[in-house]
Amino acid sequence: MQTNRGIPVSAGVAIGPVLVLDTEGYRIPSRLVRPTEVESEVARLHCALAASARETRDNQQAVDAQLGKRYGAIFAAHALFFEDPALVEEIEHLIREQQYAAEYAVSKVTRRYATAFQNLKGNLGLSSRSADVYDIERKLLSHLLGKRREDLANLTEPVILLAHDLTPSETARFDPAKIIGFATEAGGRTSHTAIIAAALELPSVVAVGDFLSDVTGGDEAIVDGNAGLLIINPDDETRRQYESSRQTYISFARQLDELRDVPAETKDGVRVELSGNIEFPSETKHALEKGACGIGLYRTEFLYLGRDTDPTEEEHYAAYVDVLRTLPPGAPLVIRTLDIGADKFSSKSAQLGEERNPVLGLRSIRLCLRHMSLFKRQIRAILRAAVHGAVQILFPMIATYRELRQCVLVLAEVKEDLQEEGVEFNPHVPVGTMIEVPSAAIIAPQLARDVDFLSIGTNDLVQYTLAADRTNENVAELYSAADPAVLHLIQRVLDAGRQCGKRVNVCGEMSGETAFATLLVGMGLRHFSVTAHHIPEIKRVIRAFSVAEAEDIAREALRLESAVEVMNFLRDQTRRLVPDAMA
Amino acid sequence: MNGEASTGPALPPGGLPRVARRTVVISNPQGLHLRPAASFAKRARQFAGRVNVIREGMSVNGKSQVELLLLAAEPGTELVVEVDGQDADRALTLLIEALSAEYSDEEE
């Protein structure tokens, strides 16, 4: 039995056989070979190297003929990688000395080089060479695995997925009936993958550190998404304990589900609106089942993910109408326009051009305002879909008043276009701005005048206010929604909304954490938009206090001097009000 | 490329130099990027002897383009190419040539 500690990102416990994943969904059947198989393993490696080099040279000739030798030369250089003595010797060494399977040795070595390239500084753009190295890995694995490659879609039994890292799109494609939990070596608490795992309610642990070399396909594992543990080959006693705690968790979740049809209101009868955050139209049903009154944040990035071309207007439209068909008539649907962020689009960000500091670069609304046809296509679809339901449009990452004005102008232009073309659309779609950049929070009173609603995105607001990357474990400690600076900015936005009579909504992770519910209500928040599975728990907490109690708590919390003090205070208060809360 | 010849360590008495060594300064505006590295490694592999490329005390296998790339030699970087073996001198000339070839007009 081996216990590894990581960061829990999605609650619950999963027990089952493991599936070890490598890049591009290649499944590595086994990490080790028997001593007697070492020679045949080395032979397999050399076959794969030769085949990969041949394949790359064939490509070179095709490219030479089509585009000229200058381009073909790139492939010629790639082909040489498969004969690179340093690379080949190191892989061979691992097979002979560690008895690694050829696939595993290839991954280990190419990963090491990819990391070395990524860490290179300077102006040569060599860090992007890591993509070449990954390409080498992919080619070799495809030759090594051949027919052994297994598609995640074809799993026959439920498994726990173990991987170095998972992209959000990989995670999103999981079939929860087949993948019952996962653990990754890399990742962070608020990475997009973690958010999706929580949405899918998959018990998961990330940032476990190196463990893949200690596990082989077919091992059994426990993923404890409550404590953040990955236990490989548990002993009988541990297994029994987990079986029973799993049952407890399931019955707790059932109990919360019973809250679905009771209203979200405080003890003194003040209504709080709880809506759901979704990434895919298919999540709408789940959000409703958990008691959401509508969709407070539809993140549309996934329309753009995992494909080479931009989505068409019809694809946008179909997705939006799909959500509206699932929602009851009149239920709000807030569609946020494209919010590409470096953290969410690691694979695509390269295509947007290298930026030294992508989080502070050309992303989100800045990108849209630069790529007008892309932006307008989405707005057209939103306005057209709004004929079928209570659609609202939300612009992300607004940092200046001018940007908001530009968005409003583009919106007006699109309406004019649709009008001229005689296309049916809804001209009265409410407009909102995200408040997720500190500058926007500071000028919230000005922004509020020009929009119908404000939506506070706490994940980015926290990151930008405290200048701490939420996925960088070295500084993750600084990243806290409970930080007094963040709370004061949120208070400012809530006050601005109240003064202008505009709705304010909080849609980040913060609004889904039970400890913050009292504080936010006390600060004046009446609209929460949260991941579906948080709704019952938040509702339960809201029903446990009165507005006056919440206001006292908020006043006290805003007087505290550090995130830690605030967090401890809020946890204590929540436990006092809701003794059996999961928090 | 600017080549600056220097003989290797002490000549073995009465024999040919066993190690040939030359310092070059990378002048290609792209630095030692994929193609010059590949071309260098390819030529280096044709020699039986050892080929080392040294940058500020970091020595890599000159037959490995991956390691050459990891030198991250930007324009102006001084590299020492060291060849060990029978045709050391001939090898050195060919290798320096690979580094000096023009890779202009290429989007790397």
Q: Any key phrases for this structure?
A:
heterodimer, A: 583 residues, alpha/beta, 9-stranded mixed beta sheet, B: 108 residues, alpha+beta, 5-stranded antiparallel beta sheet, 5 strands, 28% helix, globular, disordered N terminus, disordered C terminus
| Average pLDDT score of chain B | 79
| Spatial strand arrangement across the major sheet of chain B | 1-2-5-3-4
Number of strands of chain A: 17
Order of helices and strands of chain B: EEHEEHEH
Shape summary of chain B = globular
Percent of residues in β-strands of chain A? 5-15%
Whole-number radius of gyration of chain A? 26 Å
How many strands, which pairing sense, and closed or not: the largest β-sheet of chain A?
Answer: 9 strands, mixed
Determine the N-to-C terminus distance of chain A: 29 Å
Main sheet overview of chain B: 5 strands, antiparallel
- Overall morphology of chain A: globular
Nearest-integer average pLDDT of chain A: 86
Return residue spans of chain A where pLDDT drops below 50 for at least 5 consecutive residues. Answer: 342-350
Distance between the termini of chain B: 19 Å
Using only CA atoms, what is the Rg of chain B?
13 Å
Write a structural description.
The complex is a heterodimer of chains A (583) and B (108). In chain A, α1 runs antiparallel to α2 and α3 packs across α4. The longest helix of chain A is centred in the N-terminal third of the chain and has 30 residues. Chain A is globular. In chain A, strands 1, 2, 3, 4, 5, 6, 7, 8 and 9 form a nine-stranded mixed beta sheet that branches. An eight-stranded parallel β-barrel of chain A has the order 10-11-12-13-14-15-16-17, surrounded by seven helices. Chain A is α/β, with parallel strands linked by helices. Chain A is built from 22 helices and 17 strands. Chain B is of the alpha+beta class and 108 residues long. Chain B has a five-stranded antiparallel beta sheet with strand order 1-2-5-3-4. In chain B, β3 and β4 form a beta hairpin. In chain B, α1 runs antiparallel to α3. The radius of gyration of chain B is 13 Å and the shape is globular. Chain B starts with a strand and ends in an 8-residue tail after the last helix. The chains are: A alpha/beta (583), B alpha+beta (108). At the A-B interface, α2, α3, α4 and α5 of A face α1 and α2 of B.
